[in-house]
Specification:
single chain, 272 residues, alpha+beta, five-stranded mixed sheet, two-stranded antiparallel ribbon, 11 helices, 7 strands
Length: 272
């Protein structure tokens, strides 16, 4: 159970014993400064700390960390709202406000760097509208997107969705294509979407852009795109057990050996 009077966010468990809470006392500031800097492992100094507010609670954390790393430093353990940590999965959408600013901004916690005085809260899931359908029964025609997501017709071309997209996708552009019924264009323009939901948080027309795009990509892949020969080859190889020896070998490795395969640049083939 969370401590009385302290907010606990769904999907994030706060470990009270590890949390470094700033109340302004010199003793607490000194304790925070004595903790090792997670970037350099050296001692922290007052000049290397900044104050952030997570759901209203203040914490002193090392500067230059991402929001995700700063929250973990403050004692939060991610149960949801954390995935790839590399800006690809879209699980860590975050709303924040900078010091002395009334404007709310959004970003990915694994990519956005903290600033002193930042107020923030996470959105591990955005409860946007998602149409129910059976893909096999849908026709990939010009009306299917508008039929299942009629709200796209309310688009006022404000471009707020494009401006907020962390992937720099022309979101408004593919919604315009959806209105025209151009499934292929929507699928192509939205290909890099990570479904973080941030576009939907800004839309005055309440369009859930990423679900519209997901339907377009599903329809295009299932009913319009040419069949990829190599996919069939790979499925056949899996059925024949070609990869079973490698999986068995991984299953016999110890935790230390698996860790070395993932982290050690001498063992892992990592791109430069």
């Amino acid at each position: 159970m969370p401590a009385k009077g302290r907010a606990q966010k769904p999907g994030v468990r706060k470990q009270k014993a590890e949390a470094r809470v700033t109340t302004g006392s010199e003793e607490q500031r000194g304790q925070a400064a004595a903790c090792p800097d997670p970037r350099t492992r050296g001692p922290l100094t007052a000049s290397s700390l900044v104050t952030i507010h997570v759901m209203g609670q203040a914490y002193e954390v090392p500067k230059d960390l991402t929001i995700m790393k700063a929250m973990e430093y403050a004692g939060y353990k991610f149960i949801r709202g954390c995935g790839c940590r590399g800006g690809f999965c879209g699980a860590c959408g975050t709303v924040f406000r900078k010091k002395d600013s009334y404007k709310l901004k959004v970003g990915l916690a694994c990519q956005t760097v903290i600033e002193d005085g930042m107020y923030l809260a996470q959105i591990p899931f955005y409860p946007g509208n998602k149409a129910e359908y059976e893909l096999e029964k849908l026709a990939a025609d010009t009306q299917v997107l508008v039929k299942l997501y009629p709200e796209v017709m309310r688009c006022i071309a404000c471009n707020s969705c494009t401006k907020i997209c962390p992937q720099d996708i022309d979101v408004m552009g593919y919604i315009s294509a959806a209105i025209r019924g151009d499934i292929g264009k929507v699928a192509d323009m939205s290909f890099d979407c990570i479904m973080c939901g941030l576009c939907a948080t800004r839309c005055p027309a309440e369009i859930v852009h990423y679900n519209v795009a997901l339907l377009a990509r599903r329809l295009y892949g299932a009913k319009r795109a040419k069949r990829a020969r190599h996919v069939g080859d790979r499925v056949r190889e899996i059925a024949e057990g070609r990869f079973e020896p490698g999986l068995d070998r991984l299953g016999r490795l110890s935790e230390a050996e698996l860790s070395a395969m993932y982290y050690d640049p001498k063992v892992r083939d990592v791109e430069p």
